[in-house]
Every structure is written in C-alpha cells, then in structure tokens.
Specification:
single chain; Rossmann fold; seven-stranded mixed beta sheet; binds magnesium ion; binds zinc ion
C-alpha cells in the first residue's frame, strides 16, 4: 500500500505556533478564551479564527512579517524534506494557519516551498484589517481547513496514512483515520491519544525519518 505523510505545520514543523505568536503580539484581547470554546466543542475552528483574528484592530504586512521572521523550524526538518524529495514520498502539509506565512517561513529556512503540497487557509489585508480566506467551503465540523476531509480522501484513494502533528486540529484526523501517528512530545495530540497503539512520540524529524525507514518503507 502506498503511504501518504500528512503533516501539521505550526508547532510541528515550527518550534512555536505562528498564529499564537501573531495574536499575542498584535492584540491585547483575550483570544485564548476562544480556544477553550473549540476544545469544549462549542464552536468550530472556522468561527474561532474569525473571532480571534477579528480582534486585531489594525496591522500591516511589515508588522506581521517582523513577527513571522522570528519563527524557527525544527532544525532536522531540512534533511527530512530532502529525504522526502529523494524518495518521492507523498507528503502534504495540512495547516489551520495561513499559506502566506508558511511559504515565508520555509523560504527563510532555505526550503523550496513551491515544491511542497501545502493546504492551508490564507489571509488578505484590507484597510489594515485581516480578511480570512478559508481552505474548506463546507464540512461537518465547521473547520476553517478540514484536515479530516483531506486525510479521508487520501485513504479512499488507497493510501495508508502517516500523520504528524501536535495540536487540537490534529486529534480528529489522527485518531479516526491514521495508521501511524507521530505526536510531538508533551503537546495536546500526544496527551489526548496516550495509550493508543498507533501513537509514537517524537522530539524531532530525524527520529520520524529513521522510524519510517525502519518500520514503514
Ligand atoms: Mg500545530
Ligand atoms: Zn472538518
């Protein structure tokens, strides 16, 4: 069975969550409270993102990129990406963040982002207010970008699913659909799926590469 590697971006490829960094620095409003509604299942990520990014009254691309340019990636992701390319493995980045900053962060770290399959939301700036562009039109969970639907489609196409992630938006697709799950140590995904036989904890992408080579190729 061919494998598809589905990988979250923020907090998984990057060492901190870009969205949270931006919100923390661009608004003093209580955007964290909205995350709790998502965790409790009261609202979907689509509504959450509208509420949270709407809290930023005024910003500029310069201000945004100054923050984005401080974001670091897992130093072992660079060689992981080369390895994926050399072996021609199917690899997708699935993110509830924005494509513009994802490409920028990867380019900042000398990774050719144009060659990557990235599915994410995006954002425009109109009169210094953010306007969101969601990747998903409709889904059952009111997602901004429905990772579940993408992974389910790959599974229907006959791929076995390797899922790499860290956070809340990874729990549903990983728990319901993945064959193997790599979860960043001590984060929500790892905690939530504790005891699941498919779960492997990782600290860096070198470990994931070695484990896939050893057990899955
Ligand atoms: Mg994440
Ligand atoms: Zn969904």
């Amino acid at each position: 069975m061919p494998i598809a590697i589905c990988c979250d971006f923020d907090g998984t490829v990057t060492l901190s969550d870009t969205g949270k960094e931006l919100l923390s620095k661009l608004t003093t409003a209580d955007w964290q409270a909205i995350d709790k509604f998502v965790i409790d299942g009261q609202i979907g990520t689509r509504e959450a993102l509208i509420k949270q990014w709407g809290m930023i009254e005024h910003t500029t691309w310069e201000e945004i990129f100054n923050i984005v340019d401080t974001i670091q990636i897992d130093p072992t992701f660079y060689s992981f990406h080369n390895w994926i390319t050399q072996h021609n493995l199917k690899f997708l980045i699935l993110s509830d963040g924005f494509e513009t900053y994802i490409h920028r962060i990867l380019r900042n770290h000398k990774i050719d982002s144009a060659s990557l399959n990235i599915l994410a939301n995006d954002v425009e700036l109109i009169n210094n207010k953010l306007k969101l562009k969601f990747n998903t039109q409709v889904c059952n969970h009111n997602c901004a970008n429905c990772k579940y639907s993408v992974v389910q489609q790959l599974q229907r196409e006959g791929y076995s699913i390797i899922y790499i992630g860290d956070g809340l938006s990874d729990i549903l697709p990983a728990a319901e659909l993945a064959d193997v799950i790599y979860a960043r140590r001590n984060e929500d995904l790892a905690k939530k799926l504790q005891g699941d036989s498919r779960l492997k904890i990782f600290d860096n992408f070198k470990e994931i590469k070695e484990d896939i080579e050893r057990n899955l190729l």
